Amino acid sequence: MKRRTFLKAGLATSATAVAVSAGILAPNTVLAAYNEAAFKTKSIEEGMSAVFGANGATDSADIKLKAPAIAENGAVVPVEVDATGMKGVESIAIFVAKNPVPLACTYKLSGGAVGFAAVRVKMGETQDVVAVVKAGGKLYKTKSEVKVTIGGCGG
User: Which residue, among 63, 45, 62, 42, has the nearest Cα to 54 in the 3D structure?
Assistant: First the structure.
């Protein structure tokens, strides 16, 4: 390691530590949890019940689901859910309808968090990606079909 690189790294670390201790820079906290029951479900309805405690979701145009129309490789399909236009977003879940485990991921938001999530999912075949958003105690959803040319779940 060069002396100059070492000094830059040391100064940057020291400045960050001082800013955190002075309260100028507050560290962000991300907590992860595993909902075993939700990841053992075999349908979207069962998954919604396990994640949200209910499975009746209303279609909503306020949720923007961005997924490719055609995924060349089902092993890495980028999906974005934008619910920033909705007030009081509490959580976001993404389901992949025909996968062995339909629940791909779930995000619980709090406080002033923005209703946005992005993830890469695996898809074994052409199917619907469903985004479910809990906002104001109600469930809303939207879906998009993704055509997969090469399956990502062992296909």
Answer: 45
